[in-house]
Amino acid sequence: MRCNKKTIIYYSMAKIYAPKKLVTNSMKPKKEIVSFLINYSKALSFVKVKDKSFEIIAN
To answer: pLDDT: is 50 or 15 the higher one?
Structure first.
Protein backbone atom coordinates (compact mmCIF):
# COMPACT_ATOMS: atom_id res chain seq x y z
CA MET A 1 0.00 0.00 0.00
CA ARG A 2 1.32 3.38 -0.94
CA CYS A 3 1.07 6.12 1.67
CA ASN A 4 1.11 9.71 0.71
CA LYS A 5 1.30 12.75 2.96
CA LYS A 6 -2.51 13.09 3.20
CA THR A 7 -2.87 9.49 4.35
CA ILE A 8 -0.25 9.95 7.05
CA ILE A 9 -1.90 13.15 8.29
CA TYR A 10 -5.32 11.44 8.32
CA TYR A 11 -4.08 8.57 10.48
CA SER A 12 -2.25 10.97 12.80
CA MET A 13 -5.42 13.02 13.27
CA ALA A 14 -7.41 9.83 13.93
CA LYS A 15 -5.03 8.93 16.74
CA ILE A 16 -5.33 12.39 18.29
CA TYR A 17 -9.13 12.63 18.08
CA ALA A 18 -10.00 9.00 18.79
CA PRO A 19 -12.81 8.52 21.32
CA LYS A 20 -11.56 8.67 24.89
CA LYS A 21 -13.15 8.28 28.29
CA LEU A 22 -15.08 11.45 29.04
CA VAL A 23 -14.99 11.06 32.82
CA THR A 24 -11.84 10.11 34.62
CA ASN A 25 -11.44 9.48 38.32
CA SER A 26 -9.87 12.88 38.77
CA MET A 27 -12.99 14.57 37.37
CA LYS A 28 -15.47 12.97 39.76
CA PRO A 29 -16.39 15.47 42.52
CA LYS A 30 -16.82 14.51 46.14
CA LYS A 31 -20.33 14.05 47.51
CA GLU A 32 -19.82 17.02 49.85
CA ILE A 33 -19.12 19.34 46.93
CA VAL A 34 -22.18 18.17 45.00
CA SER A 35 -24.33 18.58 48.10
CA PHE A 36 -22.97 22.08 48.70
CA LEU A 37 -23.70 23.16 45.12
CA ILE A 38 -27.23 21.75 45.19
CA ASN A 39 -28.01 23.46 48.50
CA TYR A 40 -26.48 26.71 47.24
CA SER A 41 -28.62 26.63 44.11
CA LYS A 42 -31.74 25.97 46.20
CA ALA A 43 -30.97 28.96 48.43
CA LEU A 44 -30.16 31.31 45.56
CA SER A 45 -32.94 33.45 44.19
CA PHE A 46 -33.06 36.35 41.77
CA VAL A 47 -35.22 39.41 42.29
CA LYS A 48 -35.79 41.82 39.44
CA VAL A 49 -36.78 45.38 40.35
CA LYS A 50 -37.41 47.62 37.37
CA ASP A 51 -34.23 47.37 35.30
CA LYS A 52 -31.99 45.95 38.04
CA SER A 53 -31.48 42.35 39.08
CA PHE A 54 -30.48 41.23 42.58
CA GLU A 55 -29.15 37.87 43.73
CA ILE A 56 -30.26 36.83 47.21
CA ILE A 57 -28.87 33.88 49.12
CA ALA A 58 -31.23 32.70 51.87
CA ASN A 59 -29.19 30.96 54.55
So the answer is: 50
